[in-house]
Amino acid sequence: MRQQIIDRFVHHSDLAANRTLVLSSAEARLWLDEQTDERSFLDIPSYDRHQRPGPIPQEGIDLAVVQADMGIAASGTVAVQSSDEQLRLATCLAEHLVVVLNADHIVAELADTAEYLRQHTSSDCAFLAYITGPSRTADIERVLTIGVHGPARMSVLVIDDKEHTA
Amino acid sequence: MSHTQAPLQERVRAKIDDKVLYENLRNFGTSYRVSRAKALEGRDFPALRRELNQRRSLDPELVMQRFERFKAQAEAAGGTVYCARDAEDANRYILEVCQRQSSPIIVKSKSMTSEETRLNDFLEARGITPVESDLGEWLLQLANEHPSHMVMPAIHKTRQQCARLLEKVAGHELDDNDIDTMVKVARKALRERYFAAGVGFTGANVAVAETGTIATVTNEGNARLSATTPGVHVALMGYEKLVDTFEDALKTVDLLPKCATGQNITTYVTWMKGRNPSQAHPEGLKEMHYVFIDNGRLGFLDHPDFSEALKCIRCGSCANVCPAYEMVGGHVFGHIYIGAIGLIKTALFHGDKTAHDIIGLCVGCKSCSEACPAGIDLQHTIFNLKGYLNKKYGVPGLKRFAMRQVVASPERMRNILKIGAFAQAPFKSKDGRYLRSIPVLPASKDFRRFPSVSSETFLDRFRQMSPLQKSDERVFFYPGCAVEYFYPRMGEALVRILRHAGIEVEVPEKSACCGVPAIAAGDMQAAEQTIVTNLGLMKNPEDYAAYLVLCPTCGMGIKEDVPQYTRERPDEYRRARRIASKVQSLGQYLESRGMRFRVRGDRKVTYHTPCHQGRGMQQTAAPYLQALLGDQFVALTHSDVCCGFGGSYSLDQAEISRGILDKKLGHIRESKADILVTDCPGCVMQIDGGARFQKMDVQVMHLSELLDEHLELVIEA
Question: In chain A, which residues have their Cβ closer than 8 Å to the Cβ of B270?
Answer without folding.
Answer: 127-130
